[in-house]
Amino acid sequence: MRVVEVDILRGIAIVMMIIFHFGYDLYFLKIYEIAYTNYFWSTLRIGTVSLFLSLVGVSLYLAYHQGIDWVKFRRRTLFLGSVAGLISIATMIAIPDGWIYFGIVHCILFSTLIGVFFVRIPQVALGLGVFILVFYQFGYLQTEMFYEFIKPILGLPHRTQDLVNPLPWFGVVLIGIFVGSQKLFNLKLPINKITQGFAWAGRYSLWIYLIHQPIILGILIGFVYLFGHQ
């Protein structure tokens, strides 16, 4: 089922992601030096990913808490898997020393495959989600050593343009499942042109995610070609 408030929030998240990627592309193309470790950019990235993945959990609950249509679920996960594979292949060609092997779409796919089994037990999802986040903060669920171990085995690059680790981010999805179970979206937001625009972006967020980077890069590369930069 579609809930307009969820679409609005997802639309806000995709706008936040576009802003972040625009700044990153300015840095990547050496048009403008941006310190990605400063408070604004770090907070923007964490906030964007947190909003996206918590809404994945909300959507999982809304879609499957009354029962799972496994045909539709399989179709959905195959689509996400195809998109994730396309992203990996495209970035492998474009950026062979930094291609994306586990970005946001890969994490959404992983979280969907595992999270669907928690939609009927949202309280357990909340407890496990909080457990993951707390223990991660205390350094008990770090994955850096795991990646360092498997990189040479799987031929993964030493760096990547986007890495959204399943830990701790799956914990955010689990908490989103609980939030969805609380029917917080019965509180209706006002509908106007602005919220309608966000809702539209939210409905097509995956497609916007796929095309926004080539568009931004194309515009910026064209700008550099035409006007140059210092």
Walk me through the structure.
The protein has a domain at 69-186. It contains nine helices and no strands. It starts with a helix and ends with a helix. With 230 residues, the protein is mainly α.
The first-to-last residue Cα distance is 50 Å
Largest sheet: none
Helix/strand structural class: mainly alpha
Return the string of H and E elements.
Answer: HHHHHHHHH
Uncertain runs: none
Q: What is the total tally of β strands?
A: 0
Radius of gyration: 19 Å
Described by the principal axes of the CA atoms, the overall outline is globular
Mean pLDDT across all amino acids: 89
Strand content: under 5%
- The DSSP helix count reads 9
Percentage of helical residues?
over 70%
In short, what is this structure?
This protein is mainly α and 230 residues long. It has a domain at 69-186.
Q: What's the helix and strand layout?
A:
Blueprint: H1 4-28, H2 39-64, H3 70-94, H4 104-115, H5 122-137, H6 144-154, H7 166-181, H8 193-203, H9 205-227
Helix pairs in contact: 1-2, 1-8, 1-9, 2-4, 2-7, 3-4, 4-7, 5-7
Keywords:
230 residues; mainly alpha; globular
